[in-house]
C-alpha cells in the first residue's frame, strides 16, 4: 500500500488527508503535527476567539472520530526533526522513523519577530496559536496602553478587537498606508478612516526602533520619529516567515519558502509542498500565499495527483482572502499589481462597495468592503478569465453576472491574495 506522510497538521495538511479519502484513496496516511490541539482553523484566533466568542474546541477542522473513521493516523505533539530523502523516511523527535512513498510538506509559517532591541520583553506578543490568542485576550483585558506594530490584516484585526474591548490602541506602520502590501489605496484609506473613527491612533510612515522596559516588562515603544509611547502591551503583526527549515536541511530547493513546480512538487519528485510554506509559480513569479483558500486548494490539487490524476495539470486556482475588523468585512480576490488602476463600484460612503483593479486594462483583482456580491462576482470573473471594461465595472447598472457567464474568454489574469 502506498504510504503518504504529511508533515504539518494544519489547514493544508488535514486538507490533503481529507481530499485523499474523498477521492477514494486507500493509501496509508499519516499526518504529523507539532501542536497538541486537534487540528484547528487559525483565522478565528484574531477574530472570534480573541473576542471571547469561540474556544479552541469550536475551531476544530474535524472531530477526533473523523480521523479514526477515515483511517488517518494523526500524530499530535510530534515534531519531525529531519527528512532522510535517500532512505525515504522522516525522523521524529520521540518515535521510530517513518517511511514514505510520498511526503507532503505542509509546515506553514510562523510570525516574523520584530528586529529591534527589547523585542523579547514580557508583554510583547505575537499571534499564531490558540494559546497566543488566549494570552492576548487576557492581557488586553488588563492593559492600559496598547501598541500594535504593523497595519496588516492581523495587526488591524487585533486593533479592532482592542477597540471592542474599550481600548484605544496605537497602530504603528512603516508604510504610508494600512494594508499596503495587500490592498490598493482606495481600500486602505477607507479601512484607515473606519479604524480612526473607532478610536485607533494610526501612525503611518513610522517605524519602531526600540522597546523599553522595567523589571523585564515592556513599558515604552520608541518610534523612528523619536516619540516615546507608553505601552504595557505590544502586539507584533509584521508578517510571517515560512517554516521551511526541514526542507532546507534536506537539500530541497528553497528561497524563503519551499520552491515547487506548477504541480506543487519540490525539487524531489517524491516530496510535495503546499500552503504557507510553499512558493509556487504564479504569473511567472515564485509566490508564497498565506490564506486558507490557498492551503485548502493546494491540498486538493496534490491529493488529486497522488490519487492517480497524471494529467500534469498546473495548480491555478483563483486566490481569495477575507478579513473581519469590527464592522468591516473585507474580501479580496486576485493578484494586485503595484501600479494597478482602481475603479470603484458602489459608493464608499454607504460602507458597501468594491474596487476593481486593472493592470494594462486587464482585471487583476477585486477588493470588497461589506459587499459579498462584489466579491463573488470578482471570483466568477477571474475564474472565467473575463475582464469587463473599466466603464462597465464602474456602472452599477451593468450586469456583471451575465457578463461573467458569457462565453468570450480573454487572457486569464493572474491572481493572488496575501503574497510575500
Ligand atoms: C491570527 C491569524 C489569522 C488569520 N486570518 C486569516 C483569514 O482571516 N483568512 C485567511 O484566509 N487566512 C488567515 N490566516 C492565514 C491562514 O490561517 C493560513 O494561511 C493557513 O492556516 C495556512 O495553513 P497551513 O496548513 O499551510 O499552515 P498552518 O495552519 O500554520 O499549519 C502548519 C502546521 O505545521 C506544524 N509544523 C511545522 N513544522 C513541523 C514539524 N517539523 N513537525 C511537525 N509539525 C510541524 C505547525 O506547528 C503547524 O501546526 C490567518 C493566520 C493567523 C495566524
Give an overview of the whole structure.
With 420 residues, this protein is an alpha/beta fold. It is built from 10 helices and 26 strands. The strands form 7 sheets. The protein has a 5-stranded parallel beta sheet. Strands 9-16-10-11-12 form a 5-stranded parallel beta sheet, with helices on one face. α1 runs parallel beside α7. The radius of gyration is 22 Å and the shape is globular. The chain starts with a strand and ends in a 15-residue tail after the last helix.
Kindly summarize this structure in a few lines:
The protein has helices at residues 11-22, 64-69, 130-140, 153-164, 185-197, 245-249, 292-306, 372-384, 390-394, 400-405; strands spanning 3-7, 28-32, 72-75, 80-84, 89-92, 98-99, 102-105, 109-111, 124-125, 146-149, 170-172, 201-203, 208-214, 217-223, 228-230, 233-236, 240-242, 258-259, 271-273, 278-282, 285-287, 320-325, 328-334, 341-347, 352-359, 362-369. The chain is an alpha/beta fold.
Topology of helices and strands:
Layout: E1 3-7, H1 11-22, E2 28-32, H2 64-69, E3 72-75, E4 80-84, E5 89-92, E6 98-99, E7 102-105, E8 109-111, E9 124-125, H3 130-140, E10 146-149, H4 153-164, E11 170-172, H5 185-197, E12 201-203, E13 208-214, E14 217-223, E15 228-230, E16 233-236, E17 240-242, H6 245-249, E18 258-259, E19 271-273, E20 278-282, E21 285-287, H7 292-306, E22 320-325, E23 328-334, E24 341-347, E25 352-359, E26 362-369, H8 372-384, H9 390-394, H10 400-405
Parallel strand pairs: 1-2, 1-7, 2-3, 7-19, 9-16, 10-11, 10-16, 11-12, 18-20
Antiparallel strand pairs: 4-5, 5-6, 8-17, 13-14, 14-15, 20-21, 22-23, 23-26, 24-25, 25-26
The protein binds flavin-adenine dinucleotide.
Flavin-adenine dinucleotide is lined by residues 7-13, 32-35, 42-43, 45-46, 79-80, 106-108, 127-128, 154, 243, 246, 275-276, 290-293, 295, 321-323.
Amino acid at each position: 500500500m502506498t504510504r503518504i506522510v504529511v508533515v504539518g497538521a494544519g489547514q493544508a495538511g488535514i486538507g490533503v488527508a481529507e481530499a485523499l479519502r474523498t477521492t477514494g484513496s486507500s493509501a496509508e496516511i499519516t499526518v504529523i503535527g507539532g501542536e497538541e490541539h486537534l487540528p484547528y482553523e487559525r483565522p478565528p484566533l484574531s477574530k472570534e476567539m480573541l473576542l471571547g466568542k469561540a474556544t479552541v474546541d469550536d475551531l476544530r477542522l474535524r472531530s477526533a472520530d473523523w480521523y479514526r473513521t477515515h483511517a488517518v493516523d494523526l500524530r499530535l505533539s510530534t515534531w519531525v526533526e529531519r527528512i532522510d530523502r535517500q532512505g525515504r523516511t522522516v525522523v521524529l523527535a520521540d518515535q521510530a522513523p517513518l517511511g514514505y512513498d510520498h511526503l507532503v510538506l505542509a509546515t506553514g509559517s510562523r510570525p516574523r519577530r520584530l528586529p529591534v532591541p527589547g523585542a523579547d520583553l514580557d508583554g510583547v506578543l505575537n499571534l499564531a496559536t490558540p494559546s497566543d490568542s488566549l494570552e492576548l485576550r487576557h492581557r488586553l483585558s488588563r492593559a492600559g496602553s496598547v501598541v500594535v506594530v504593523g497595519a496588516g490584516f492581523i495587526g488591524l484585526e487585533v486593533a479592532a478587537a482592542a477597540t471592542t474591548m474599550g481600548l484605544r490602541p496605537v497602530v504603528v506602520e512603516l508604510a504610508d498606508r494600512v494594508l499596503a502590501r495587500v490592498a490598493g489605496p482606495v481600500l486602505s484609506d477607507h479601512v484607515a478612516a473606519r479604524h480612526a473613527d473607532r478610536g485607533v491612533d494610526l501612525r503611518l510612515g513610522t517605524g519602531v526602533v526600540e522597546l523599553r522596559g522595567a523589571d523585564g516588562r515592556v513599558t515604552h515603544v520608541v518610534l523612528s520619529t523619536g516619540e516615546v509611547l507608553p505601552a504595557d502591551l505590544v502586539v507584533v503583526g509584521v508578517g510571517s516567515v515560512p517554516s521551511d527549515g526541514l526542507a532546507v536541511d534536506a537539500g530541497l530547493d528553497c528561497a524563503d519558502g519551499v520552491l515547487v513546480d506548477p504541480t506543487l512538487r519540490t525539487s524531489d519528485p517524491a516530496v510535495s509542498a503546499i500552503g504557507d510554506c510553499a512558493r509556487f509559480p504564479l504569473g511567472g513569479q515564485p509566490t508564497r500565499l498565506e490564506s486558507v483558500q490557498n492551503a485548502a486548494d493546494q491540498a486538493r490539487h496534490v491529493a488529486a495527483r497522488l490519487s492517480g490524476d497524471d494529467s500534469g495539470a498546473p495548480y491555478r486556482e483563483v486566490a481569495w482572502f477575507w478579513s473581519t475588523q469590527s464592522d468591516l468585512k473585507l474580501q479580496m480576490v486576485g493578484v494586485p499589481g503595484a501600479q494597478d488602476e482602481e475603479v470603484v463600484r458602489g459608493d464608499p460612503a454607504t460602507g458597501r462597495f468594491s474596487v476593481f483593479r486593472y493592470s494594462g486594462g486587464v482585471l487583476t483583482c477585486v477588493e470588497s468592503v461589506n459587499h459579498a456580491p462584489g466579491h463573488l462576482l470578482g471570483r466568477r470573473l477571474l475564474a472565467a478569465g473575463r475582464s469587463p471594461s473599466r466603464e462597465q465595472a464602474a456602472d452599477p447598472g451593468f450586469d456583471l453576472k451575465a457578463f461573467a457567464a458569457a462565453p468570450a474568454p480573454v487572457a486569464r489574469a493572474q491572481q493572488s491574495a496575501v503574497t510575500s
